[in-house]
Amino acid sequence: MPFKRPLSSHTSDDSESASSHDGPSKRLSSPWNIERDKAVLVYILRAKIHPETMSELAMLVENYKIERVNKSHQGSSVVSELNLELTTDVEKADVIVTATNMRQRLERHINWRIAKTKAIVTPLWLQDSVKSGRLLPCGSYVAVRDSEDETSRNQDTSSGNSFYSPSGAEKEGSWQTEQDELIDAAEVELLSHNAKYSCLRPSPLVCPNQSLVKEIDIIRRGRNIEGEERSMVSYSRAISVIKAYPRVITEHNIQDIRKLPFLGEKILSMIEEFLKTGRITEAQTMLADPRFQSLSTFITIHGIGPYTARRLYGLGLRTLEELERYYEVKPGVSDEETMSLLDADASANTEAAAEQSIKIGLALRHDLSQTIPREEVEDINRTIMRELSHIQKGCKSVIAGGYRRGKSQSSDVDIVVTHTDWNLGSQKVKGLCRKLVQRLHEQGFVTHVMHLSGFHEHNVLRTHHWDSLEKALTVFVWPHNSSQRRVYRRVDLIFAAPEVFWTAVVGWTGSTMFERDLRLWAKQQKGMKFDSSGISRRHDSKLYHPRTERDVFKVLGLIYIHPTLRNADA
Ligand code: 8GT
Ligand code: MN
Questions:
Q1: Pocket test for ligand 1, best of 372, 508, 519, 567 (most atoms within 8 A of CB)
Q2: Dist. CA 92–CA 145, nearest whole Å
Q3: Which of 22, 370, 401, 553 registers the highest number of CB atoms within 10 A of its CB?
Q4: pTM as predicted
């Protein structure tokens, strides 16, 4: 069910223009119609929330408040604008947090006449808002479907440039952006945090044991850079299990943790150490290790994986400056002839292309290491789709990757595109990826192409799904504008035939562990093969063509999991 997702954030410009109209006393700290400096009053409805979760939610707000007050006393310049207060008086509340998704159930506790004047959201909204330090729009967190309209209306609609409530240009355009589903609380309840596959568990962006997860992730990263794949996957599994565990782990409930899958003795003793000391010795030892430091730094460069990082280290290289000299790259300058990829035919999987890619990554590393806020991700998608509409009308896109899982900052932009015509779309998107990249280059938006691949030729043995995806890994930049310096961004474009659009979206939404388990689940439990380019049945190669994202889950025999609950990695 589609929903309206109001613009998530506000710039200082927005609030300034609001104040000039309304006077300082009514300055809006949108997207909510709440005055700046006034606390947002949160009422948490106890019904259907586990008592422990209830106290965790309350603590979340209280701890956040204390931290915020401390920061402001210390004169910190990073005091967050988010100002939350718990209230037990629902009439005074701005927001109702509830695990209930039925209006009738809510009405047992709160008069609908009152409830419908509030934003009614899931507990995840509270967790994510606190995590990101700002009032998130409640669009994807709407708890009670009946209240969807009211909840949207209770947010600021004055900005008018909300991505999901199309501005004039979008309405008139011949392209559209697919809207995400709501979280269905009843559906989430069908999932189990004890399940063996992460595609059966709800995994929030930030979990109650996030600092533990981060510590274990250091060890996982250590295994990754050393090429110890099996061990790395074990740590990834352990992390994904903890990500889905809904309570804070303490010395009192550690026995419960022992019952979770994939937590062996070694990990359990690390967890115990963490509970006692707040640290894991092995992780701290790794952080202090110069080899770990060099290799970790090397793999931050696009194009350098663990294998190449170890090879470079073996040559005696230790720092990025040394890599620059080795690759003869000047920071900020990259006139590699990567655009030649546009003329070359297909898979540039050659060593020269790989080296080219590293050179670009190195030269632009200062920009590419900066994260991208959601608003800019949306702007980039909008711009790309506008350019695409000049080449082919009727296309649509979904922004996948971490953005779709709810991250407030992304390291790159992953956009999956298809055509809205189910029958002819496949023909219409063929070759479009290359044409679009060419146009974006001519318009000054795309400066580099690291990789460009076309549809696969018909694969007789059907060892992989064929004839379905085109992919371009690019560097995107806003064209020159006198006032601002251009920041280079990594943008991945994936073109899918309509039949495999939703499998591509699921495949590119991640997270990595979620994807790994989707493939494993399909193979081990369903005798099927799943990847971004399609779903097929193993014994007869029958192909499935899901028409929605829900269909993808249905075909795989899975309960639908909302993208924001697919954060099975650290
Ligand atoms: P971030 O970009 O903010 O760091 O977070 P992210 O969006 O989760 O990471 P990402 O590295 O951009 O990857 C997004 C998802 O796309 C991942 O979950 C991964 O499974 C998938 N993905 C790639 N590369 C490829 C690829 O070459 N083919 C396919 N099918 N999927 C890929 O990252
Ligand atoms: Mn991404």
A1: 508
A2: 22
A3: 401
A4: 0.73
